[in-house]
Amino acid sequence: MQEEIWFGKYRIQKLLGQGGTAKVYLAEHIKLNSFRAIKYISKHHPLYKLQLKEAQILKDLKHSCIPIIYDIEEDEEGSYIIEQYLEGVTLKDYVMERNTLSEDMIICFALQLCDLIHYLHSVKRPVLYLDLKPENIMVTGKTLMLIDFGSAIYRDEIKSKTKFYGTIGYAAPELYNNHPVDEKSDIYGIGMLLYFMVTGKLSYKSREDIKHIDYISNCSKKLKHIISRCLRYNSSQRYTCVSQLQKHLSAIMNNKNYKVMKGSSIEIGIAGSQPRIGTTHLSFSLCTYLIQKNISCLYIEYNKSRCLWKIQKRYFNLKKNKGVVKINSIPMVNMDYAQVMDLSKYNIIVKDYGSLDSDNKEEYLKSQVKILLLGAKDWELGFSEEALKLITEYKDIIFLFNYVDTRQFGQAQKSMIFRNCLRIPYEPNPFAKFKDKVSHDFFKELADLCFEGVIS
C-alpha cells in the first residue's frame, strides 16, 4: 500500500481486516506517535446507516472492556471511526490455539463479560448487544475487549417488526422467531461463549447441532448448570438479569456451597398474594430440599391457618420437644412457641406468613430472604397487584409464580424486569425426595438465590 495520510494526521500502515460492511485499518497518529484503528464504512453500502449507528452508540459508552472512540470523520465516500488500537487475538483464535481453557480462566472471562453486559443494560439509555461471538471479542493479556457494536441497539428502539442482525448459531433464537427480544437475549449470547470456551467448538448452525452440555466431560456440574440455563430456548427460563448470572459464576469461583456460620441462622420469610396460593406447600418443599442437603431447618407457622395443628391430628405418637414437633424429618413449631425458643442451632428458619397484608408486612420485611408467591391468572391479578403495592420499594424480594404455564409466566415477567422471578413446578408431595430434574433444578436455583447476599 502506498503511504496515505488521512485527514492530515493519520498515516495508514496496513489493512487489519474487513467484513461484510466495513474495513479496519491500522494507522499512526503522526503528532502523537501512537497507533489507532480506523474503521471505514462506505456510504454506498446498503447497511451504511446501521453501521454508522455503532459509532453513535459507542461515543457515549465508557467501560474498560470497550475500545475508546477518539473521533469520527466523514467524506463523500464514507465515514471513519477512529478508535483505540488493540494488540491481541480474537477469543476465537485464543481458544482454538489452546483447544480448551481451564474452568478458572473461563469463569474469569465470563465475569468480565457479565460486568460489561450489565453495564450496557444499566446505562441511562440501555443498550442490547445481541451479537456476542468469539470473533467480536479481543483478548489483550487477560482482558476481554468487545470490538464490534454493529448489531447493538438501544432497548427503547426495539419494536415488533425490528430486524436484528445477530450471527446464526450464537444469537438467541428469539431474534429470528418473532418472540420478544430483551436483556435475556444477551444472556443467551454469554451462554454460547461459555459453551465455546468449554468445548472449543465453533457454532454457525442451528441450536439443534449443538452437543448437549451434559455430555461435555471437561466441565464441572455447576458450570454445566449455568450454561444450560443461559441457553434455554424459552427466554423466561434463563437468568432474570446478568447480575444474577454473575453471582452464580462468582459462587463457583469462591467455592461457596450453602455454608452458614456456626451459631447463626438465615431467616427466610415466605408470603403469598392471596389465601391458598401455596405458601405452606412451598415452605415444606424448601425445607425438604435443604434437609436433603444436610442443612438444618426449622419451619415456623407464622400465620393463623392452624395447618400445623391439623397435620398433627393426622399423625400418632408424634414427640414434642419444647413445642417443636418433627413431621417427615422437618422440625415444625407455631409462632407462639418460636418467640421463646433459641433458634441459633438451626441453619435455616423458614417462616410461613400465609397471605401478605398490612398486619404482617412489617414482620415479613424483616426477613433476610423474602419470597413472595404470586398468581398470574385473570382472577388472581388483582390480589397480586395489591400485594406488590405493599412491597413496591423493596428490590431484594424473590417472586415465585404458582399454577402458571410458560405463556402466563412469560407475560407476568414483562412487568417484572430486573426482578428475580421463578415459576414453581408441579410437585404434589412436599415431603418426597425430588426425582424429576425440573423440580430439583427449581429448588437448587431457589436455594442459590436464598443464599446470595447473606453469606459472608
From TrEMBL:
<dbReference type="InterPro" id="IPR000719">
    <property type="entry name" value="Prot_kinase_dom"/>
</dbReference>
<feature type="domain" description="Protein kinase">
    <location>
        <begin position="10"/>
        <end position="251"/>
    </location>
</feature>
<dbReference type="InterPro" id="IPR008271">
    <property type="entry name" value="Ser/Thr_kinase_AS"/>
</dbReference>
<dbReference type="InterPro" id="IPR017441">
    <property type="entry name" value="Protein_kinase_ATP_BS"/>
</dbReference>
<dbReference type="InterPro" id="IPR011009">
    <property type="entry name" value="Kinase-like_dom_sf"/>
</dbReference>
<dbReference type="GO" id="GO:0035556">
    <property type="term" value="P:intracellular signal transduction"/>
</dbReference>
<keyword id="KW-0547">Nucleotide-binding</keyword>
<feature type="binding site">
    <location>
        <position position="39"/>
    </location>
    <ligand>
        <name>ATP</name>
    </ligand>
</feature>
<dbReference type="GO" id="GO:0005737">
    <property type="term" value="C:cytoplasm"/>
</dbReference>
<dbReference type="GO" id="GO:0005524">
    <property type="term" value="F:ATP binding"/>
</dbReference>
<dbReference type="Pfam" id="PF00069">
    <property type="entry name" value="Pkinase"/>
</dbReference>
<dbReference type="GO" id="GO:0004674">
    <property type="term" value="F:protein serine/threonine kinase activity"/>
</dbReference>
<keyword id="KW-0067">ATP-binding</keyword>
<protein>
    <recommendedName>
        <fullName>Protein kinase domain-containing protein</fullName>
    </recommendedName>
</protein>
